[in-house]
Amino acid sequence: MKKEILNFLTIGALLGTVVLSSCSDDNGGDPITDPEEQEDRFITVAGALMGDNPGDGNGGTMVYSVTKEEAQNPDTQISVYTEGFGVKSNRTAHLQSSEDGSVLFNIAYTGDNGGEFSRYTVNGGGSFAQSDVSVNISQYAGTSPRWLKLYDGDKTGVALNVANIKANNAPAGSTPNASFAYYRGVATVLALDLQESLIKSYQQYEIPLTNEEEAAGHTIFRLDGSVLNKAEDKLIIGTWMRKYNTVTGETEGDYDRLGTKSVVVDYPSFANPTVITSTVSHGDNSGYRSHYSYLGDDGNIYQATERDPAGSHILKINQSNEYDNSYVFSLNQALGLTGVTIEAWQYAQGGKAFALISHDAAVNGFIVWMDLNAKTASIVDIPYDVDLEFNQYQGFVVDGKNVYIAVTPVGKNGNIYIMDSNTGVATKGATLVNQPGNHYIGIF
């Protein structure tokens, strides 16, 4: 899983430069009022077992829960792989949790039970009681749906899929001809009732781009990373774009990318899909098994990008559900690096957030503290290991001003870290005991 070995002294010098050049938190002198913490809650950690290769996470998912006090204590030993509970999934489970940490939600990913939604009551340790009621959404969204829980009081999950991408909706196996107009798939947007474990509603439709974009072979390949706007009348959905050669029908890996696009649909009907485009970034914004867009305290939506030739950005979508192209926050520029990719991130409060990143000059991942208002970023000061990767990371817990993050290099022990979103300072918590080839992928 290593990209290349970088001289250790070079990494150290680079980190020193990044930390020293980053901007400090400046709230204009206003006193910081910390959001309220929960008095007590379970903290559930998730670990991915290796499949064929170390760090691929394709061997299934284990979970284990501790109290918040235990999670904060470095003397706590958590061994998810020997004492944990295996949630349903042929590969890496797609997990979400209730706001108070008492319930875990899962949709199995691929395999015979792919698309099956389950609820688990968190009882502590390796005890997770599965609800008697489950529902399988595979007939609507396939056996490998992308899904996230909305921030609506644990009421709704949204599953997404794009299937059967082909030219002009021609029969399978046919190739483009002189009448070629577009490549499109059929998108599914499905609402899950998280409390009753049932399908509330769904819509299926094609989502066209502009005539010019489609004539060049561009199409929406994947949907994910949905978020509800402040008015709760629109759902903003992230996209992963793809381009086909209009003559051969083959996908193209190297092409001029379009601006970052989101799909906006009415909520809760999911009707009237429209596409909005950012001119700030040319990356995708669907994320990878985690939230990639958040509703900020100011009522705007903040969205990360990936696969951007100019490095990841944080974009802003205003309360009119349009991109604010005057807001420019480049992680390359803020960190003084190249090739910055946000693997996962979490909005905390007051415009503060944490991102798990990779970049061109190192083989391992890093944690970055961000001020979205000041558009500044700095690497958090914790020990980093060359085998630390965040490419499959899923879950964070926000508790008041604090954000809990699991940090384990592949096959090595690590720790829970508690990040202060006001200062960017990390405190070491419980020890995460690892096994060869495995890694921890989230906290819920």
UniProtKB/TrEMBL annotation:
Top-level taxonomic group: Bacteria
PROSITE patterns in the cross-refs: PROKAR_LIPOPROTEIN
Record-given protein name: DUF4374 domain-containing protein
Organism in which the protein naturally occurs: Algoriphagus ratkowskyi
